[in-house]
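thought: user wants a sequence for this fold. calling inverse folding tool.
action: design(structure=
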C-alpha cells in the first residue's frame, strides 16, 4: 500500500502514505490459505507493487518466486506494475514459471516523453517500448494491458498526437 512516487496527477502518497508491504512469509501463508479454501488464481496488485519490499528488505522478484512455489494455486497474474520496476529478470521468470500467466498490466500514462515529464513519471517511452518488446520476445502471446491518461495540464494537441502514434505502434492488447 502507499507510494513513494509523487506523480503530478495523483494524491495516493498524500492519502495512503509511503510504500509499505507485508512480509513474503505472510503473503505465502495467505496464498496457501486461499488454495486450501479452493482458490485457483491470485491477481497480484497494489498501489505500486514493483516497490514491494522497501519496508521488509525483500523484493518483488523474491515474492514472485515464493508464490510460484505455492501448491494448489494454478494461476497468478501481475496487475499494475510500473515499467521502470518491471525487470527483465521478472519477465524472463514469468516466461518459464509454473503458474504465472503471460499477463501484465503496465501503466503507460502517456506516449509522449514531454507529457511523462509533466506527470513526473520515472520512465520514458523508450523504456516502455523496451519492456513491451522484451515481453513479446519471450512470450509472443502475452496479454499486455496499459493505462493512458489524456488531458494532463500542459498537454498540447501535438503531444496528444505523439502519444496516440506511440500507442498505435505498441504491440499491446
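)
observation: tool returned 173 residues.
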Amino acid at each position: 500500500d502507499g507510494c513513494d512516487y509523487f506523480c503530478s496527477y495523483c494524491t495516493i502518497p498524500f492519502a495512503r502514505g509511503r510504500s509499505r508491504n507485508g512480509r513474503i512469509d505472510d503473503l505465502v501463508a495467505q496464498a496457501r490459505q486461499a488454495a486450501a479454501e479452493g482458490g485457483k488464481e491470485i491477481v497480484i496488485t497494489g498501489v505500486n507493487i514493483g516497490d514491494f519490499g522497501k519496508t521488509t528488505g525483500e523484493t518483488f522478484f523474491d515474492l514472485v518466486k515464493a508464490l510460484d512455489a505455492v501448491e494448489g494455486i494454478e494461476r497468478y497474474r501481475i496487475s499494475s506494475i510500473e515499467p521502470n520496476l518491471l525487470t527483465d529478470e521478472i519477465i524472463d521468470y514469468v516466461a518459464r514459471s509454473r503458474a504465472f500467466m503471460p499477463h501484465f498490466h503496465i501503466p503507460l500514462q502517456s506516449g509522449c516523453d514531454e507529457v511523462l515529464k509533466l506527470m513526473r513519471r520515472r520512465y520514458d517511452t523508450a523504456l516502455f517500448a523496451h519492456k513491451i518488446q522484451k515481453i513479446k520476445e519471450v512470450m509472443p502471446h502475452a496479454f499486455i494491458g496499459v493505462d493512458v491518461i489524456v488531458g494532463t495540464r500542459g498537454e498540447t494537441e501535438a503531444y496528444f498526437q505523439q502519444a496516440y502514434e506511440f500507442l498505435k505502434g505498441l504491440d499491446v492488447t
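thought: summarizing for user.
answer: Here is the designed sequence. DSSP finds seven helices and four strands in the chain.
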